[in-house]
Amino acid sequence: MPVPTLNQRVLQYQRDGRGLEEILAEIGPRIYRYPLSKLGFDEDDCGEYFLFVYPRLLRTLDRFQDQGKPFEWYLNSVLRWQLREYRRRRCAGEESWAAAAQSGFWEPEGKPSCSHFAPCAQVGAEEGPGVLELVRRACGSRVSRAAGRRILFWALKHPRELGPEDLQVLAEISGLAPSFLAEALRSVERSLHEREQRLQRLYQRRNRAYARCLHLQARLCRELDPGRKEQLRLRLDKARESLHRTAERLAGTRAHPSNREIARALQVPKGTVDSSLYWLRQRVLREARSSA
Fold first, then answer.
1. How many folded domains does the chain comprise?
2. Are residues 212 and 88 in the same domain?
3. Domain extent for 198
4. What is the pTM of this model?
5. Which ranges of the chain does DSSP label H, i.e. alpha helix?
6. CA-based Rg of the chain, rounded to a whole angstrom?
7. What are the pLDDT digits (tens) for 84-97?
8. Which of 11, 131, 251, 265 would give a disulfide with 184, using CB separation of 3.0 to 4.6 Å?
């Protein structure tokens, strides 16, 4: 009994769906070794190319029409076109990685430092007066209740730097209960967490737009066809607009809690927070100038 040819088995599969495993077992090695017959491809490309073509094999089998030429001829033309598409996507991926690896690529800013904030901590003389020490000096040797509230407002501007011992100190100098301060700190941190998530999304969007600009610039320098160059220019202009738009949104987004959020957490008027921080800032600047 004569063995059916590959062409006959493909037609049989189209009629009743049988024999698919035998067909794939026969043409699979051909597909895997196909890139080796072309210049610029190696063994690593064989595996990547096979994974690229394999999901499209069923569509290739279904589209075959017997017009007097064998299935091998049709398969070879499909593999040739798929190899061009695979090369194009591989080059685009390599250009994207090269663009993202450049030294000018912007990385998202790191998380705030975890150093504790101790308003009344003593700073060593060999370290010199820091910002926290200047805040303490600005309020005088003995911190009054009003000055303690001002320090509390300033501390809640940096909630990530507060530790449990700092809350106890802030409770003593402000006259507020530690439990109330802990709840206020959690409220401020929740609003800060939402802002940090928004900033992270903006950083990622900015990075994607920046990498897209670098990628399109590289393709524009290499492209010779006038029509495609014009299309790349339009895409590059669009990517630049997206980059500038995202950069403007980043510049207008605060990285610290607002005075209104602090006032809401402590149940005080917003004007009290505004005036207290302004007074404290002026005293700190005056102390810094006098100690310089």
1. 2
2. no
3. 131-291
4. 0.50
5. 6-16, 20-33, 43-53, 57-63, 71-100, 131-138, 145-156, 164-174, 178-222, 226-251, 259-266, 270-291
6. 33
7. 999 888 877 777 67
8. 265
